[in-house]
Amino acid sequence: MATGSRLDTCLAEAVAAEPGLKDTAAVIAAIAEAATDISEVIGRGALGGDLAATGAHNSDGDVQKALDVIAHERVTAALRTAPVAEVASEEAEGVMDLDPGAPLAVAIDPLDGSSNIGVNMAVGTIFGIRPVVREEGNPIASFTTPGRAQIAAGFVTYGPATALVLTLGHGTQVYVLDREARAFRLTHAALDVPEAAREYAINASNARHWDLPVKAFIEDCLRGAEGPRDKDFNMRWLGSLVADAQRVLMRGGVFLYPGDGRKGYAQGRLRLLYEAAPIAMLMEQAGAGATDGERRILDIAATGIHERVPLVFGSVEEVACVATYYDGRNHAAGRSPLFGQRGLMRS
Fold this sequence. Notes:
alpha+beta, Fructose-1,6-Bisphosphatase, Chain A, domain 1
């Protein structure tokens, strides 16, 4: 694949090398077409109306915004033109049946990063493509296999440029939307995430709720070169999973969205099927790692289409380091006042 090649050309080359990918390529092409439309809507911003206007609640209990609904409608309409039997979407309570005889199932978050709508920050679309599993009496059978069953995965970042990050199981590529041609073009043929880096991403406002392993890991990062990590770190947090994931894929680092002590947050807030599993496949295909802190994400099988999971991904040395805190070797959080119960404002 040559830099600058169109997505359709690259997909055709992939199918020529592996004919079994023909249907998968058709699904990716449909998602890319929907993403192009969504990009145009987002690009108009407030000129196209109030995209952050709130409405009903989605299947997961979150308030839907106008752009959530638009994205869901665009991607599901596109998938009806592709060989897709079933869709599990964040914006639908149950599995959506499309073409009963089709061979593929798609898990999709039509619009990731809803809190960034209306403030001109990056949002995205995340998807994973799986083979259909037909099991009498189990309408979600296609989505209860482990993440390693995915044939392909990707996400689209709607930012200064619209980028499609994609894997067909043979490395991770990046395509950027050529707006004039309405076509995605290859910019990075094979991402290779550095094994170690000096950046971490976490929502530090939840520090008081974190479990001890997470507190200890972050405290040691904050202690920098004077602490046990022997190096200084920068913190990044964009509030958009796709944007944080693309940064990690491009330059390394580690992202953490752990479970914590708040009600409803024991398993974090990210969804296994259409957020964690696709991101994990992309990471692993780029030489990075993805776990729930202890277990490989791609080994976890969902029991429901909206199941949540803690998520840690990024440079393999950093992901492995987080795991050491979970396995009991570094549960020393609270050893300094940083995360203690007493501080300058307490007596």
